[in-house]
Amino acid sequence: MSISENLSEIKKSLPTQVTLVAVSKTKPVSAILEAYNSGQRIFGENKIQEMVSKFEDLPKDIEWHMIGHIQTNKVKFMAPFVALIHGVDSFKLLQEIDKQAQKNNRIIPCLLQVHIATEETKFGLDETELFDILDSAEFKNIKNCTIKGLMGMASFTDDETQVTSEFQSLKKIFDAISKLPVTDNFSPEILSMGMSGDYKLAIASGSNMVRIGSSIFGERTYF
Ligand SMILES: *Cc1c(COP(=O)(O)O)cnc(C)c1O
């Protein structure tokens, strides 16, 4: 099937409240254009330099989402245009995004990444670290970022019970932060969870943003 056929199949399967981020990492500009031409406007990348070069080559009405792990010293390259940063996993990183957003005279929407998988390798905050950030006095000094919600990745396993329980644990945390007062820099609306292999389980557990790559663009080959 073609990219546009894959896209329309997936879109048909998504409830209306769920936003689709088409994960185009490692894929060429031509593949992104094919998705763009069939109406997709939100794309996700996991490497800042790759996202910057695609931003430069592609139409300017694309919303670029950074979904990967972020090195603080590279934030400045995406600060002029990034639409949503999913992987904020430390206060230090949030401060750097805030600083670069301010230089660009922007407010950058961010998600805090929570560690829900049993695997050691996935990045993210635990629940205590998350609340420590939100409750801290320093958080009030963040003026050029808005925390729009949470992002998480389940374990890479066929065990659907485990994946579902990990997604549910994130939904529970999301519900808890949703009870906190909305402020200038905190307005939780987005729960980003679910990839090609597990997005249906994620949606059943309350996700409203899915990040889908290989089911749209085909398997990735890394060199
Ligand atoms: C690569 C990636 C995805 C998409 O993965 P697929 O299995 O190809 O859909 C989603 N989220 C993150 C954080 C990723 O790095």
TrEMBL record:
Residues 3-220 form the Alanine racemase N-terminal domain. It comes from the Bacteria. It holds the Pfam family Ala_racemase_N. The modification N6-(pyridoxal phosphate)lysine is found at residue 25. One of its GO terms (molecular function) is pyridoxal phosphate binding. Its cofactor is pyridoxal 5'-phosphate. Keywords: Pyridoxal phosphate. Pyridoxal 5'-phosphate (PLP)-binding protein, which is involved in PLP homeostasis. NCBIfam families: YggS family pyridoxal phosphate-dependent enzyme. Belongs to the pyridoxal phosphate-binding protein YggS/PROSC family. This is Pyridoxal phosphate homeostasis protein. It comes from Flavobacterium silvaticum. The lineage of its organism: Bacteria, Pseudomonadati, Bacteroidota, Flavobacteriia, Flavobacteriales.
